[in-house]
């Protein structure tokens, strides 16, 4: 197989590290494992490099051995430019090809709009809206993590659902979420300790979001109120990031729910915001950064310096 066009593409997130070997639009092979805390931490570049290299080594045997570039979308890039440049250099040295490192959110915007200016709302465990304007300047709203932000995210929805279950347990408004939460443990009273023992409480709470969506769709008033509030918060986030453009592409695990996606579309339309189709995702954005230089978003892409 001719490997002249093969590139290595990675999404190194806090919950998952995913690697693909691509040739044009074809994915030749893929591998994934658990993620890492983020590039901003001490020794973050080395940790990200070792994780990415280890995951790449898990690709199926018999794939093209030579590459012409690497694109890596990595959590925490915005926290440390020095670590981002170091990671690009480490990748280039290891794989002997030019390497591009960019944030997972920048990669998502690149992939969703194929490098064009515009706004993307990502609703997963967290929530963030990213817009690049015609001059390539970044405008961001939210994405501030589970303690200070990510309003309307999967974590937010799941947390509100668990709180509603405990309120019902205390004698507050009745909700089917109480039964759903009780199914997780012997008693709702164990929920605080269960979360405290989790290695990632935000991700654990986000896993309850599909339950909230299911109960909301089934007609539970409390769950539906949580989902409606999430949509309202996300509309505010889009408004803050999009400026006068009033268009947005949607990405993330939560919007894969047809029920939630429909409600969010309606909420955005009521605010005068048009939803445009996402052309790709963060992996496609990382591939674009590896394939093309001089992008509108170039100042936010960390390259190793090779031609």
Question: What can you see in these coordinates?
Answer:
With 307 residues, the chain is α/β, with parallel strands linked by helices. It is 42% helix and 20% strand. The chain has twelve helices and eleven strands. Strand 2 (16-23) and strand 3 (26-34) form a beta hairpin. Helix 3 packs across helix 12 (282-291) and helix 10 (221-242) crosses helix 11. The longest helix has 22 residues, at 221-242. The two termini are 25 Å apart.
Unreliable segments (pLDDT under 50, ≥5 consecutive)?
Answer: none
Provide the structure class: alpha/beta
Shape: globular
Characterize the main sheet.
6 strands, mixed
Widest beta sheet: strand line-up: 3-2-1-4-5-11
Structural Rg: 20 Å
Put simply, the count of helices is 12
- Give the total of beta strands: 11
The proportion of residues forming helix, as a percent range, comes to 40-55%
Which series of helices and strands comes N to C? EEEHEHEHEEEHHHHHHHEHEHE
**Terminal-residue CA separation:** 25 Å
Mean pLDDT: 91
Strand content: 15-25%
What are the defining features of this structure?
307 residues, alpha/beta, six-stranded mixed β-sheet, five-stranded mixed β-sheet, 12 helices, 42% helix
